[in-house]
Amino acid sequence: MLTHPQFNPIALKLGPLSIHWYGLMYLVAFVLFIVLGRIHLKRRPELGWTAQQLDDLLFYGVIGVVVGGRLGEVLFFQPGYYFSHPLEILATWKGGMSFHGGFLGVLLAMWLYGRKHGKGFWQITDFIAPLVPTGLAAGRIGNFINGELWGRVADPSLPWAMVFPQVDTLPRHPSQLYQAAGEGLLLFALLWWFARAPRPLRATSAVFLIGYGVLRFAMEFFRTPDPGIFGTLSLGLSTAQWLCVPMVLAGVALMLHAYRRPAS
């Protein structure tokens, strides 16, 4: 049985400036987006993307993920706390970013980018889908360093069961690392492979929606559920799991539409 290392959330102090590990993980995510994006546009030049357009996409995406992710955490998961402590809404370095909120924020940002630069919405989402999961992995590693979003109680015989001293003395699943591996690395491998060759419009976006929704739904069984606006809902599922259901359904609908053949 392991014990969480209780990392110092501050990675580096430069005078009055404190650089937090959580913020550094976001920086890693954005760097990976650019690096993988440049590789992707070179292996798929027929998509018609340039390095400058990729940089512009990142700018829009950063705004979408930060604003949407924070608002999603506030509105979907802890509205009572944040409405009682409104200044804490700005304390993003402490963690607390909702994927589902960030996802909606990025979709809005990509729509705005498309309107300004003449790119189709699905053309944009198909291009960025393989570039997102490594950033999700980096975010989950940031959660682990912060010692937040810990897992459910685990069998003590599990070799990697971990005690989070800030919670209690019970062995728990290190669910942050499960999510980094599943929603991050596994989903990245799937999308990177799928997007290597031409696919129908919307298909890559559909794989992302289905893949993330299914993997997140499964990982929630190992993670202590966030309070959520409704707590634990019907069938004993968490708010995050129910938010994944429309993602998967939308992904299936998109996939069917993408591969639909006109009647002969």
TrEMBL record:
Recorded coiled-coil stretches: none
An annotated GO BP: lipoprotein biosynthetic process
Top-tier EC class: transferase
GO annotations of cellular component type: plasma membrane
Pfam families given in the database record: LGT
Keyword match Transmembrane: yes
Keywords linked to the UniProt accession: Cell membrane, Membrane, Transferase, Transmembrane, Transmembrane helix
NCBIfam families xrefs: lgt
Name assigned to this protein: Phosphatidylglycerol--prolipoprotein diacylglyceryl transferase
